[in-house]
Amino acid sequence: MSAQGLEVIDHTVQLTHEWINEVRDRLGWSSSRDALRLLRVTLAQIRDHIGHDQVAQLSAQMPLLIRGMFFEGWTPAQTPVADRSADSFVKVIADKVSDVQDWRGSDDIAAIFNTLNSRISDGEIADVKANLPKHIRALWPD
After folding, report:
1. Pairwise CA distance, residues 74 & 113, whole Å
2. C-beta of residue 120 within 8 angstroms of C-beta of residue 61
3. Helix 122-131 to helix 106-119 angle, to the nearest 10 degrees?
4. Largest Cα–Cα distance in the chain?
5. Which listed residue, 66, 82, 121, 127, has the most CB atoms within 10 A of its CB?
6. Does the global pTM surpass 0.85?
7. What is the pLDDT of residues 69-95, one digit of tens each?
8. 2 pLDDT band (50/70/90 cuts)?
């Protein structure tokens, strides 16, 4: 039982740490903070490249805290974004995490995709990938 009687909060904190730890381990990075930042910006890029219904369906499988980060700063009227190239997708992420010493570009983005592969249902991953432009989908490992 939670000390505050708020088990749902304790549970989402635990799940969020599990996601962050998995990302950090897949990346081989020492900083959980940097791993979380990459997770956040990559999720935002995914969100901004898929339709609104798909955004809602994907978010339903995320822990509450990660779901909140996923929706933070979202302007639905501006999505999906006009520039849907893989280069732009990677550049937006790189601009926000390139100061991370261990940043390796697309390989690190693939680590986020692999984390989603392990945490989100296969059917939902297939739907998200189907809604991404072909060149971005090609970055996503099976």
Report:
1. 20
2. yes
3. 140
4. 48
5. 66
6. yes
7. 999 999 999 999 999 999 999 999 999
8. low
The number of residues in the chain equals: 142
Q: How far apart are the first and last CA of the chain?
A: 39
Give the DSSP letter of residue 73: T
Instruction: State the sign of the Cα–Cα–Cα–Cα dihedral 118, 86, 91, 83.
Output: negative
Say whether 30 sits in a helix, a strand or coil: coil
- DSSP symbol at 121: -
Which amino acid, 73? G
- Rg of the chain, C-alpha, whole Å: 15
Residue 27 CA to residue 31 CA, distance in Å, equals 10
In this predicted structure, the answer to whether residue 5 has a pLDDT above a threshold of 80 is no
Q: What is the dihedral of CA 43, 45, 50, 56, to 10 degrees?
A: 30
Q: Please identify which residue in the block is written with the tokens 């381990």.
A: 25
Q: Give me the residue label for tokens 């974004």.
A: 81
